[in-house]
Amino acid sequence: MQRERLIKKYPNRRLYDTQVSRYITVADVRNLVMTGIPIRVLDTANDADITRAILLQIMLEEESGGEPLFTANMLAQIIRFYGGTLQGMFTRYLETSLDLFAKQQQEMTQSWTENPFEAMTRMTQKNVEIWADLQQDFMRAAGFNFGAKRPKKEDDSA
């Protein structure tokens, strides 16, 4: 895993990349994120971690131009989770879901050399199992105890 890249935001609103010792733009920060480099942005005025604010700014710029990722309905649903009792669970669920989606996208890209139908079948079966486990964990965290995890099938012993 790559080391976290420290970026400082100065009162003049400029961003400074401490690793390359130069000022960068929000577009440069976006490129770091797109290449998978972990970042942390600190406000030099008070040492506050403003990474989320910068990432939200990037998302807003992305959503404003071109094809948006989020529909108005999706954004409204997300807003409804703020302050609710399930906010923390929703955060973990969404983060786990996005991690899973990214991993599967990577697996799909790597599996194009195989028989595509076999790769899709295998991935679909794996998806069903992972989503069932994830949903059970989510419900258990919400206080609904369904007992032990699903029993593994006989062919899952490997």
TrEMBL record:
Leader peptide range in chain numbering: none
GO biological process, one term: regulation of DNA-templated transcription
Pfam family, one: PHB_acc
Annotated PHB accumulation regulatory domain residues: 70-108
Limits of the PHA accumulation regulator DNA-binding N-terminal domain: 6-65
Identification of the protein by name: Polyhydroxyalkanoate synthesis repressor PhaR
Species name: Chromatium okenii
Gene: phaR
